[in-house]
């Protein structure tokens, strides 16, 4: 049974095709496209013709937000589709796009092929209550479903799954701190495959400094800015999501590559702040987990920026975390252990394979 995976972002889409071979999945093709320039149906048709001699038997969709009801992989029927649409205000850049690609797939591939939704938030559905709760009035949190949901679940699940293969001596992977560092950034604390905390919360804005997102802020600063600058809620959301983070601090770019190459003081400050805040989360999650067996880096920055990994973990020798400078420098865009041999905590850079997680989840859901 061939499975097509559709991983749609706000401005791009990734397609992949897999075929089960025993207990393994064989990758048959993958492509990434900017989705704005070409019609969805045209993109999908071209991919299918290049990589699939016959239509897929199953389609797996990444959906960012499943809320409190869609907490596991689900076949998409009318009720599931309606719930994804109801949650669109909580993920306005992603859930509507996922639905648009669902409709395109039905149009191009026919109505009889089953579609399965795999939710980023589902990985965090069983977070401890203390890690999901905001200190707000209970009536409000219940009425409006105000809680920490967590995002990037597929990426962190992919990192943990690969780590488990690398360290079969640890029961269910032991204790792991995983970083997904790209345009969006998050870090999770995982114990034996079960997330215990994560940096993103009610929205993907909470947590680490990102390319254009602010990460953690004092809420009073937001209301002060609105009063002082006369900003409406739409303008405020745009500022925090699109004009802050590395871009806002540097005043130059949200691209980590450009900032690392710059000697401009604001650019250096942006990188230092990015790494400092990430290092603080390492300390916090060491406390949550009672130590760690592994620290994992994935995503465009995590997999490719050795200097960033080094700055994040600088000074953590007291916790058994020490990078091998040569291994770290040589590990770019590929998998590799980057920590000193014999240290208590292994550190790895691992390319994130969300598509494979999508395919596995979907096939398992339909019993293949």
Characterization of the model:
The protein has helices at 40-51, 78-86, 95-109, 129-132, 138-144, 153-166, 219-229, 233-242, 245-250, 256-260, 265-289, 299-304, 306-312, 325-330, 354-365, and strands at 3-8, 12-21, 24-34, 58-63, 74-75, 115-119, 175-181, 185-191, 194-198, 294-298, 336-337, 346-349. The protein has 368 residues and is an alpha/beta fold. The strands form 2 sheets. Strands 3-2-1-4-6-5 form a 6-stranded mixed sheet, with helices on both faces. It has a 6-stranded mixed sheet with strand order 9-8-7-10-12-11, sandwiched between helices. Strand 2 and strand 3 (24-34) form a beta hairpin. The protein is globular and about 55 Å long.
List key phrases describing it.
12 strands, alpha/beta, 368 residues, 6-stranded mixed sheet
List the helices and strands and how they pair.
Layout: E1 3-8, E2 12-21, E3 24-34, H1 40-51, E4 58-63, E5 74-75, H2 78-86, H3 95-109, E6 115-119, H4 129-132, H5 138-144, H6 153-166, E7 175-181, E8 185-191, E9 194-198, H7 219-229, H8 233-242, H9 245-250, H10 256-260, H11 265-289, E10 294-298, H12 299-304, H13 306-312, H14 325-330, E11 336-337, E12 346-349, H15 354-365
Parallel strand pairs: 1-4, 4-6, 7-10, 10-12
Antiparallel strand pairs: 1-2, 2-3, 5-6, 7-8, 8-9, 11-12
């Amino acid at each position: 049974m061939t499975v097509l995976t559709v991983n749609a972002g706000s401005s791009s889409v990734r397609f992949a095709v897999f075929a089960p071979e025993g207990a393994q999945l064989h990758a048959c093709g993958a492509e990434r496209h900017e989705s704005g320039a070409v019609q969805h149906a045209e993109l999908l048709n071209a991919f299918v013709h290049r990589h699939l001699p016959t239509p897929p038997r199953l389609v797996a969709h990444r959906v960012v937000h499943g809320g409190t009801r869609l907490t596991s992989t689900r076949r998409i029927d009318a009720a599931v589709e309606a719930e994804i649409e109801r949650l669109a205000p909580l993920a306005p850049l992603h859930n509507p796009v996922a639905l648009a690609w669902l409709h395109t797939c039905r149009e191009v591939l026919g109505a009889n092929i089953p579609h399965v939704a795999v939710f980023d938030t589902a990985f965090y559905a069983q977070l401890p209550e203390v890690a999901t709760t905001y200190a707000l009035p209970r009536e409000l949190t219940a009425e409006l479903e105000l809680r920490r949901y967590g995002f990037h679940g597929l990426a962190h699940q992919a990192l943990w799954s690969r780590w488990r293969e690398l360290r079969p001596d640890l029961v269910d992977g032991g204790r792991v701190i995983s970083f997904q560092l790209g345009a969006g950034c998050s870090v999770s604390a995982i114990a034996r495959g079960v997330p215990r905390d994560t940096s993103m919360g009610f929205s993907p804005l909470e947590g680490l400094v990102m390319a254009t997102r602010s990460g953690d802020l004092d809420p009073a600063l937001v209301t002060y800015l609105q009063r002082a600058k006369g900003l409406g809620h739409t303008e405020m959301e745009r500022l925090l999501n699109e004009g802050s983070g590395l871009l806002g601090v540097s005043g130059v770019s949200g691209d980590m590559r450009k900032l690392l190459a710059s000697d401009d003081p604001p650019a250096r400050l942006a990188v230092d702040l990015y790494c400092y805040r990430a290092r603080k989360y390492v300390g916090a999650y060491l406390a949550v987990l009672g130590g760690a067996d592994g620290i994992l880096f994935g995503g465009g920055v995590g997999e490719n920026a050795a200097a960033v990994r080094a700055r994040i973990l600088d000074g953590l020798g007291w916790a058994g975390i020490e990078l091998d400078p040569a291994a770290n420098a040589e590990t770019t865009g590929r998998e590799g252990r980057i920590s000193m041999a014999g240290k208590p905590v292994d550190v790895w850079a691992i390319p994130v394979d969300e598509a494979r997680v999508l395919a596995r989840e979907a096939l398992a859901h339909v019993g293949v």
